[in-house]
Amino acid sequence: MKRTWWKEAIVYQIYPRSFADSNGDGIGDLRGIIGKLDYLQELGVDIIWLNPVYKSPNDDYGYDISDYQDINPDFGTMADFEELLDQAHRRNMRVVMDLVVNQTSDEHPWFVESRSAKDSPKRDYYIWRPGKNGKEPNNWRSFFAGSAWEFDPQTGEYYLHLFSRKMPDLNWAKPEVKREIFTMMKWWLDKGIDGFRMDSINLLVKPQGLPDAADPADMSFYCNQPGIHEILYQMNREVLSQYDVFTVGELPYVAPEIARLYVDEDRQELNTLFHFEHLLETVDKNGCDLVEFKHIQRRWYEALKEKGWNTQFLNNHDGPRMVSRFGDDSRYRVASAKLLATMTHTLPGTPFIYQGEEIGMTNVAFPSIAYYRDIWTVSRFQELVQKGADPEKTLRSLQRYSRDNARTPFQWDDSPNAGFTTGTPWILVNPNYREINLAQDLQSKDSIFYYYQRLIRLRKETPALVYGEYCPFLEDDPSLYVYERALDDDRILIVLNLLGEARELVLPQEVAEAHRELLLGNLEGAEEAGLTLRPWEARVYRCC
Ligand code: GLC
Ligand code: CA
After folding, report:
1. Is 250 considered catalytic here?
2. How far is CA 448 from CA 3, 330, 355, 363, 441, in A?
3. 78-114: per-residue pLDDT in tens?
4. CB of 200 closer than 6 A to ligand 1?
5. Residue 94 contacts residue 271 (beta carbons within 8 Å)
6. Set 29, 64, 194, 199: catalytic member
7. pTM of the prediction?
8. pLDDT above 90 (res 243)
9. 3-class DSSP state for residue 14?
10. Residue 530 scores a pLDDT above 70
11. Which ligand approaches the C-alpha of residue 21 most closely?
12. Rounded to the nearest whole angstrom, what is the distance from the C-alpha of residue 361 to the centroid of ligand 2?
């Protein structure tokens, strides 16, 4: 296994709109982030991934880009960005940008020109088709809601948008599109950024001939089409390989056997990836199906261990908070948040922290749909209610998975609006900010924040946690997760009890016989508790 800085790194994801507002307009911004770099450094972060900060009309808050080479004025200026980059670098932190090239905004000049006339030179920068018998060209659906086609009266044709109608898909079959994007990437890399998180990157190539989907609601149909690897290889050869940078591809609907092709180091496409199997396939009505979760971890480990690399994360800006989804956000919030952190930082792959998870921020339930800002939640709500669903019930069912759970402002302290802004925040603050906030965590050495610090330090001091072999035990146990990470003579044993009740730990013989030194635990008194694991207890041992 080749050793590289980005395998050893801790990545921290910032959703700039909700992180820190420096000028009181209610929107987080770049100067707000600059003001928190010392904090991130203290936490132990090596790489910051910024959700999109480019110019955007904010239909999908930055994933609809109208200028790839400018900063959204909500967030500041290019000079602010350059200062952020410089200040991060001075603190030995790198900055990774979101690369959003499956689509642009409909306000991007390319699209404005493209839609102006059928014979516009930029017409086929996007995907246009005539209607079929007065209807959409095919039955494709948008990932958000409704058809993936929008009729444009100006030229009487439809354009494709796999996300909102304000987000037309680029046509990657057009060589000029590829060239423009590669040039833009180089421009940012020459500015000194340290890599890209590549949005929906396995969607760039559309199913050949745009045929009807057998099941249009099965979104896997739109992913991993032939030709995608050639594009990524070329992007790597012509752009990325010229720099020492980190790339992580967002790959919805990818099985480990296919994912391997994207991250096999000999194939020179991406460094690593986000897959979502552990988030989508493990959900049952009790929370998480741990046996399935372990199974997924094992399959991914086996598929990538020779030549690939995985990531570990349990939340991001697109879904619920991890402590609400996988942990217990009421009685055992602190213990379960620490346990989940222990898991993501000791399983194989580069760990990602999503802003606020390091203080155990939780889901939120806004009182009505009017408070939701996320286009997915709002358009899904409208679609279901139009079809006759009960608005109250629909709201409750969407609340649990709404992307706004992750997008409430960072809870810095217990002052009004959680110290996020002196103005009116663009989205409501989670009302629990008086109890859950960073200032509070900094006051107690047992806090989630300090636990993250210790955990990060431990991972950095322990190559086995990065490069070690992954050996799971008790794979059929529905609430204990026990595994070893072993490198040369160093064997680290991780023991997790994902249950709100005590459990007796029966270790397999080869582990039971070893002498164990406790390196880290999330509850006091682990020695006295012996082999009884208390509710949501997590321990990390060195075996010798
Ligand atoms: C990705 C982003 C998500 C966005 C979508 C469209 O899934 O993470 O936030 O809405 O792509 O760009
Ligand atoms: Ca602001």
Report:
1. yes
2. 30, 15, 13, 17, 7
3. 999 999 999 999 999 999 999 999 999 999 999 999 9
4. yes
5. no
6. 199
7. 0.98
8. yes
9. strand
10. yes
11. 2
12. 22
